Amino acid sequence: MADPVSRVPLNDGWRVTTPAGPFARFTGEQPEVRDVRLPHDAMRDADRTPDAPSGGSSGYYPGGVWRYLRSLDVPGDWADRFINVTFDGAYAGARVYLDDVQLAHRPSGYARFHVDLTPHLRPGHTQELRVDVRTHLDSRWYSGAGLFRQVHLTVAGGVHLAPDGVTVTTPEVDDDLAAVEVVARVVNDTRSVREVRLHTELRGPDGAVLVEVTEPVTVAPGTPAVVRRRQWIRDPHRWSLDDPALHTAIVRVLDDELEEQAAVSDELAVRFGVRTVSVDPYRGFRLNGEALKLRGTCLHHDNGLLGAASHPAAERRRVRLLKEAGFNAIRSAHNPASQVLLDACDEVGMLVMNEAFDMWAVEKTPFDASRDFATWWERDLASMVEGSVNHPSVVMYSIGNEILELGRRDGRLLGRALAERTRALDPTRPVTNGIQMLFLVDVADLIAKAGGLNEFMGGLTDRTGEDGQNFAAGQNAAATTPDADAAVHEAAAVLDVMGYNYAEDRYAYDAEHHPQRVSVGSETFPTRIAHNWEQVMAHDQVIGDFTWTGWDYLGEAGIGGHAYAEDGAVAPYGLGYPNLLAGCGDIDITGYRKTVSHYREIAFGLADGPFLAVQRPERYHHTRPQPNAWQWSDTVASWSWPGFEDAPVRVEVYARADEVELLLDGESLGRAAVGEKRALVASFDTVWRPGELTAVAHTDGQEVGRTTLRSAGPVAEVRADAERAELHGTDDLGYVAVALTDAQGEVVVTDRRPVSVAVEGPAELAGFGTGAWRTEERFDATTCTPHDGRAQAIVRTTGPGTVRVRITAEGLPDAVAEFTVR
């Protein structure tokens, strides 16, 4: 007998193939069928080619069509039950079938949606669940494809909770008392009016029952009953960034007409946090009444070596590492976050700006979501809000990103409609929109009035200017004109928080011209964080900064990578094949912090430094990189460059200090002022010799900090270090850091001998690779070339036992990382 009520993952037992078409049975041609476990990215293992239709936007991955199949055993006692499948996302244009009968269609690949199987089930039989997806020229970044997010099966009684039908908010909270409002939608799928009871139980973070109530509910067939109840918790344990305490609301539908013991017709456990959120132009953003600035990052949805698959363990690791690097907020760029990412933010203590759309009715790519916007925007917006409302980490909704029509009448009408619909769905969170000011004005007219592009825009399209900053200066110049201000006025008026993309000069402008306007740097250049953060801290009405980006991602290949004239690279936007990654993340796709991450930590005021970064000596005499404002210097935290003895090299030191002295084996190489060319940076031109390189920071003539890099000797071993020794269950992820080191453990960044991986025990290799933005290597391969001496292996558990990950490299002893799976 099946469980009378259950909500279980439906991630095992799937097969994936390419649709063969109706005539395949006559030709005998059948495509390969592979067994997969969800979440699964069907595009990650496709062949990349220089002529891929979407080019660098997708990282030179092709589009395609895929079919997912799964057998579904239908017990006989499901005849009078409600059976639903929830997809947290299926990229893209998903069509869901049961035994070849189409039950649902969802154009958006990021929308969470529910499919009611009940009318089409044949109890006592095995039926086939099928999902067809496709992707083409529909994304400006690597989208992935397929069932890349979680799928769940719900079994409930005829009177049940609607999918996503329980919301929990905390509208009033103080030190003594918290109001917890639980709203439940109860659905009656039977043929008669039913009288049921709704039992609600609130539990604290320790699991103790704090409140429980039961109330009668009469539900007519086909008309959901909305049950709204405000309950009160004494001495509430609030959710915060430092103490992300989670409560649980357990909601049960009790139906005395059922024969099962306890008469439970449906049951749902919802985690929530007791906390308040507010914004105003005088105290900024406040969490639980305490003001804080959002140290934010824009974040694409892919998980690097895993492709677009959204694994709980991967999302939790990513959020944890971002927090350790100094971030406290994420903007889900540019689509709704997965439920497991929001779960991770709830658990770790990370704030979220959840974003609905990258475009409205005007397209950015030939086959993007604008084609379906008019038909689907209300349902897609509702999907995002319904999936967000119970997550305390979600503190703001964004209704768009750089919407092209926002300066027109149709765009202004849509903006108001979207903002008001969002508030109707959830009045507890502020609404923003990431606005690119350049799209609101007649740029050609402004250039003509100023006498030329360079004269007015400060070199807007010249990304090859000094450190790429002319591009940023040009955007700011355009953003602070009276024409731009007038064009954005209505778009800003419909928002609770004005989002500025690449327009930080608006902060001072708004303080003078719009003192009641609350704003946020919804997207900013990573190279300008010191300047930007100074402006954020100087203006109370500016609540934070979201850099592009904190974590590197697949696609938009090379926008932050390094292009040298000798390589034949082309600037300004993106780089050609075989570039794969954007290259602009503070943290690379393996989770390794790049030098810019440590600079940002100092800019945020979370560290003083000094931090040592060394530009690659092999590039010193090359034509300088073609920079842009997304691109940090081509530096590595290493003083190990064998083969470049006495070659010139540039050293950067990041510090919150007046000046820095550089020492090599105790001998002074000179002093340099901090901030002479770039804020918080001192630069030195010297020559490379092995030894100990030390940076000593001074303020007011006194030493305030020092750090050292030591040269590595010859490679002596390949290391394989498990991030955590213990894994849990049949679907956990184990991460192995691979490095080529000398006898003392120093990483040898110049050694590029291939490393190979083999997995023994109850796990499978889920991904193997590096953070190199330019590569032709595959993440499903068992051999890769280290990048700056490092690589990463990821295993996915299949059961309990001991897992050994063996790493081999020519001429070196094998290394083994071991996990215990419980």
Automatic annotation (TrEMBL):
Residues 38-58 are annotated as: Disordered. Keywords: Glycosidase, Hydrolase. The keyword Protein biosynthesis does not apply. GO terms for molecular function: hydrolase activity. Residues 38-50 have a biased composition (Basic and acidic residues). It comes from the Bacteria. Residues 722-815 form the Glycoside hydrolase family domain. Pfam families: DUF4982, Glyco_hydro2_C5, Glyco_hydro_2, Glyco_hydro_2_C. Residues 285-432 form the Glycoside hydrolase family 2 catalytic domain. Residues 648-704 form the DUF4982 domain. SUPFAM superfamilies: (Trans)glycosidases (SSF51445), beta-Galactosidase/glucuronidase domain (SSF49303), Galactose-binding domain-like (SSF49785). Residues 168-275 form the Glycoside hydrolase family 2 immunoglobulin-like beta-sandwich domain. Belongs to the glycosyl hydrolase 2 family. This is Glycoside hydrolase family 2 TIM barrel-domain containing protein.
